[in-house]
Design goal:
Layout (H helix, E strand, L loop, with lengths): L1 E5 L2 E5 L6 E5 L6 H13 L19 E8 L6 E8 L4 E5 L2 E2 L4 H6 L2 E4 L5 H4 L2 H15 L3 H21 L3 H40 L6 E6 L9 H15 L10 E6 L10 H23 L4 E4 L8 H12 L5 E5 L10 E6 L2 E4 L3
Parallel strand pairs: 3-12, 3-13, 8-11, 11-12
Antiparallel strand pairs: 1-2, 1-4, 4-5, 5-6, 6-7, 9-10, 13-14
Helix pairs in contact: 4-6, 5-6, 6-7, 6-8
Length: about 350
């Protein structure tokens, strides 16, 4: 893996091991930036905001990231590179120029835990929808066309609502929105049902004190006894007044209930982190089971908010999988014996001598 002109990293070449890789160093040294480069290569964006907002090193014209990896599913070697200037970008996969950043996401899977990942259990619906749709994108070949069909219909209906179109014009789009939305909802519900089984196993390994987890899916309209077509018809006049579509899969979300916590009882920061980690590891496990290929796992500042026992549990879980993982911290983690260690200091990444 190579990084160039990413925040304070001028030029970094990293040869990680196939298992756990630990990056240690003081605050501000550039540890998180290494994970940010991995995330950028897999998503075409940073988890800390837009590329133009400080990701490119001061004085440089663009950030460049390159990686080579071997796919577990087909045992083939692949190469991917991205040059991103904020307003423009270019990327290649196995020497072939690509036209859409979504192709990076399809080729190179990375599951990232960073400070904003707490939103999976304590935030709103948008990060939870992204979580489900990312998983479906990678394990179900027919998901993306359904998602695009629904998004296109929603955009058209919202444009009509905003322009004050007549009810008959809006109703003409309701059939398309309902048909694609019902299919999108069906896929999301089935995915969460499958993820429930994975989550129970992962949560027991990471945080048994939280109790059995339960994922509750809410499709995006309140009247569960109504079809989406009926819900759209009921909401049509209200939607005309407010100028946008108020019901549908774009409003869907899911909630995590834990048997060890009373309804309404707030999770501590450490408990929220363990719950979110359990969800992400369950998703990574599902990718591996459905595709035969583990995503790369990137965990920023793992030790923060977790006691020694739970840090050891997380590392033990990772050690029991064939996944390649990157973990950052200010000190070497107890329980990371056998990992490949890198020291990060003033923008340089130096492997520890054996």
């Amino acid at each position: 893996m190579q990084l160039r002109d990413l925040r304070n990293l001028v030029e970094v070449a990293l040869e990680p091991g196939p298992g756990l890789n630990v990056l240690v160093g003081p605050n501000g040294a550039g540890k998180t930036s290494v994970l940010e480069g991995l995330h950028l290569l897999a998503y075409g964006r940073s988890f800390r905001g837009r590329v133009r907002d400080g990701l490119v090193r001061t004085g440089a014209s663009a950030v460049e990231v390159f990686a080579e990896w071997r796919d577990d599913a087909d045992a083939a070697s692949h190469k991917v590179g991205l040059r991103h200037a904020g307003a423009s970008w270019e990327a290649r996969i196995d020497g072939r120029a690509i036209g859409h950043l979504g192709e990076l996401c399809a080729a190179f899977m990375v599951v990232t835990f960073e400070p904003g990942s707490h939103a999976l259990v304590s935030g709103g619906g948008e990060p939870r929808r992204r979580f489900v749709d990312w998983g479906l994108f990678h394990v179900e070949q027919g998901f993306l066309p359904v998602w695009r069909r629904y998004s296109r219909a929603l955009k058209q209906r919202n444009a009509l609502l905003k322009s004050g179109a007549a009810a008959g014009q809006i109703a003409a789009w309701d059939h398309e929105l309902a048909a694609s939305g019902e299919e999108l909802t069906r896929r999301r519900a089935l995915y969460l049902d499958r993820l429930q089984e994975r989550l129970e196993t992962v949560s027991q390994a990471l945080a048994p004190s939280l109790g059995r987890p339960q994922l509750d899916f809410e499709p995006g309209w309140r009247q569960s006894n109504l079809s989406l077509a009926d819900a759209l018809a009921v909401a049509r006049e209200r939607d005309r007044m407010i100028g946008h579509t108020s019901v549908g899969p774009h409003r869907a979300h899911w909630r995590l209930r834990l048997d060890g916590k009373q309804d309404g009882e707030a999770l501590s920061r450490g408990q929220a982190k363990l719950a979110a980690l359990s969800c992400l590891f369950a998703q990574a496990t599902d990718c591996a089971e459905e595709r035969g290929d583990w995503p790369v796992i990137a965990l920023d500042d793992l030790a923060s908010e977790l006691d020694a026992e739970h840090r050891t549990r997380v590392l033990a879980f990772l050690g029991g999988t064939p996944a390649q993982a990157f973990v950052t911290g200010t000190d070497q983690l107890q329980g990371s014996v056998g990992s490949r260690l890198f020291h990060v200091k003033q923008g340089a990444v130096v492997p520890s001598q054996p």
